[in-house]
Design brief:
single chain, 109 residues, mainly alpha, two-stranded antiparallel sheet, 2 strands
Length: 109
């Protein structure tokens, strides 16, 4: 099971269902508006395909924050995949790169 992908999908689903009361603040324990986009950016490469698929389902600041993160992550991910080569092949990194590159290709059209 892809736990990080599940976390992204579940958070976005909850965001769509609850709207402004979509996550619990870590410090206060109370519901706060939006989605914790900053947390989602800390997840592993396994989360990247789900983030790419989900970003368009968000609105406002969370969408901008995750969109900026995805755009900034593409060169780093591309370099990591190229640097590793076949001896250091990492499936999650490869999937992350393909999701990001495909997303940027669609956005360019």
């Amino acid at each position: 099971m892809n736990v990080d992908g599940f976390i992204v999908r579940r958070n976005v689903q909850r965001y769509e269902q609850l709207g402004p009361a979509a996550f619990i603040d870590r410090e206060s324990g109370e519901y706060q508006p939006g989605i914790d986009a900053a947390y989602l950016t800390t997840l592993s490469a396994d989360a990247m395909p789900a983030l790419v698929q989900s970003v368009d389902r968000l609105t406002g600041a969370p969408r901008e924050e995750l969109g900026d993160y995805l755009r900034a992550t593409l060169p780093e991910t591309r370099d990591d995949v190229a640097r590793r080569g076949w001896p250091g092949f990492h499936l999650a990194q490869w999937r992350a790169y393909n999701a990001l590159a495909g997303s940027m290709d669609r956005a360019a059209r």
